Amino acid sequence: MTDPTSLPNFPPxxxxxxxxxxxxxxxQDLQMNPNLDGEGDVAFSVxxxxxxxxxxxxxxxxxxxxxxxxxISSTVPDDMATRLNGCNDxxxxxNLVKAGIANNNLxxxxxxxxxxxxxxxxxxxxxxxxxxxxxxxxHRNVQAKSAVExxxxxxxxxxxxxxxxxxxxxxxxxxxxxxxxxxxEAQA
Length: 188
Description:
By secondary structure, this protein is an alpha+beta fold. It has a single domain, classed as Yope Regulator, Chain: A (2-Layer Sandwich). It is 29% helix and 22% strand. The chain has 3 helices and 6 strands, in the order αββββαββα. The chain has a 6-stranded antiparallel beta sheet. Helix 2 packs across helix 3. It is elongated, with a radius of gyration of 21 Å. 25% of the residues are buried.
């Protein structure tokens, strides 16, 4: 008879494996050096940015929230309405990304439903890419909106593709200007 301790140790099937373990595997495959904290949340770094994964287990499916938070620098205008309008633009314009301000930190998050048998690797890649695109988008929008509200021309970022324009924005600035819709056009 074969010794049961000598049998190979195969991982359980995906539907029997917690999403956190599958996320850790996906991040390791993507060479993002994940770390698991005491509460079961995952931290990882990509392009010198620290991001986190929170898994919420459900009865029939799980929810994976990938998020990051960044201290808002002193170079960003202090006007909270302008900052929040920048968040609104990111949330409306980058479908999956939610943006908000908490305790002078910009918080960006992507939440996705993950089936029990699903490999989360593709969703991790998509969410990470969206968060890393939303971060400079928010900063650029807030800086440009602030310039427009001061009556200045917004600066087009260095290295932007030819034909890049600043505005119109999806949200209205704190002074009521949209930064682009001609007079007489209906706005939502």
